[in-house]
Amino acid sequence: MSLHTFYKYQGAGNDFIIIDNRDLKFTENNPQKIAQLCDRRFGIGADGLMLLQSSKGSDFEMVYYNADGNIGSMCGNGGRCIVAFAKDQGIISGNTTFLAVDGIHDASIDQAGTWVSLKMNDVNNIDTDGDAYVLDTGSPHYVKIVSHLETLDVATEGASIRNQDTYRKAGINVNFTSPEDNGYFVRTFERGVEDETLACGTGVTAVALAMAKHNQQQGDIETPIRALGGNLLIRFHANNNHYSNIFLEGPAKFVFKGTIDLS
């Protein structure tokens, strides 16, 4: 029997399995096994799995797996959740620097340990595909403005775009958005999950930047975004087609912990 303690966290409904792997006892490099852990009927259930590991140049390293069991690109809400986990474990206090697949990230967490601000990497270009925008915010994203977003079949429409010849091999996350109050409503189809998720951190970041380009906004910008699982805030500076000082902010909460046999 090979028992491992796991923790479940969620950020705006984006949920993750987190394992403290500083002792490197979790050696599972089996996509099928990780996919089973993320399965909502035969496993713990999650949008992804993260390992917190030691890092010489920062407070910790975040290793992220998609729900299909494959190693993933940067996950914004996952990054915020692992910061909350690190605080709960006493690894960090209020501010932190950690290593992810796309490099070093700075983050901060409030005293209550539930609101996390995560600095994302700069974005130096936003391309177009017809009337949609395409950019990389740590993961590749497709952003399309639509009407009647509440009733849109995101799973079907998102899968259709994600599997176009242009995007099929590498995959792309597909975000549909519409203006709402002083911000935007966003629904996302995520590659690796291959379905709609309740929120996507790199996705809402991509939407905020794309809408700044769409509206020809410049300077310091704050964009509130509502996802199905909760509210998020993106702050950044726009200078022509260059976007810097990008922060993804929102809730990150502990759900439960348990043990599972991985033998």
From TrEMBL:
<dbReference type="InterPro" id="IPR018510">
    <property type="entry name" value="DAP_epimerase_AS"/>
</dbReference>
<feature type="binding site">
    <location>
        <begin position="190"/>
        <end position="191"/>
    </location>
    <ligand>
        <name>substrate</name>
    </ligand>
</feature>
<dbReference type="GO" id="GO:0009089">
    <property type="term" value="P:lysine biosynthetic process via diaminopimelate"/>
</dbReference>
<comment type="subunit">
    <text>Homodimer.</text>
</comment>
<feature type="site" description="Could be important to modulate the pK values of the two catalytic cysteine residues">
    <location>
        <position position="141"/>
    </location>
</feature>
<feature type="binding site">
    <location>
        <position position="14"/>
    </location>
    <ligand>
        <name>substrate</name>
    </ligand>
</feature>
<feature type="binding site">
    <location>
        <position position="66"/>
    </location>
    <ligand>
        <name>substrate</name>
    </ligand>
</feature>
<dbReference type="GO" id="GO:0005829">
    <property type="term" value="C:cytosol"/>
</dbReference>
<keyword id="KW-0028">Amino-acid biosynthesis</keyword>
<comment type="function">
    <text>Catalyzes the stereoinversion of LL-2,6-diaminopimelate (L,L-DAP) to meso-diaminopimelate (meso-DAP), a precursor of L-lysine and an essential component of the bacterial peptidoglycan.</text>
</comment>
<feature type="active site" description="Proton acceptor">
    <location>
        <position position="200"/>
    </location>
</feature>
<comment type="pathway">
    <text>Amino-acid biosynthesis; L-lysine biosynthesis via DAP pathway; DL-2,6-diaminopimelate from LL-2,6-diaminopimelate: step 1/1.</text>
</comment>
<feature type="binding site">
    <location>
        <begin position="76"/>
        <end position="77"/>
    </location>
    <ligand>
        <name>substrate</name>
    </ligand>
</feature>
<dbReference type="InterPro" id="IPR001653">
    <property type="entry name" value="DAP_epimerase_DapF"/>
</dbReference>
<protein>
    <recommendedName>
        <fullName>Diaminopimelate epimerase</fullName>
        <ecNumber>5.1.1.7</ecNumber>
    </recommendedName>
</protein>
<feature type="active site">
    <location>
        <position position="75"/>
    </location>
</feature>
<feature type="active site" description="Proton donor">
    <location>
        <position position="75"/>
    </location>
</feature>
<feature type="binding site">
    <location>
        <position position="173"/>
    </location>
    <ligand>
        <name>substrate</name>
    </ligand>
</feature>
<feature type="binding site">
    <location>
        <begin position="201"/>
        <end position="202"/>
    </location>
    <ligand>
        <name>substrate</name>
    </ligand>
</feature>
<keyword id="KW-0457">Lysine biosynthesis</keyword>
<feature type="site" description="Could be important to modulate the pK values of the two catalytic cysteine residues">
    <location>
        <position position="190"/>
    </location>
</feature>
<dbReference type="GO" id="GO:0008837">
    <property type="term" value="F:diaminopimelate epimerase activity"/>
</dbReference>
<keyword id="KW-0963">Cytoplasm</keyword>
<dbReference type="Pfam" id="PF01678">
    <property type="entry name" value="DAP_epimerase"/>
</dbReference>
<keyword id="KW-0413">Isomerase</keyword>
<comment type="similarity">
    <text>Belongs to the diaminopimelate epimerase family.</text>
</comment>
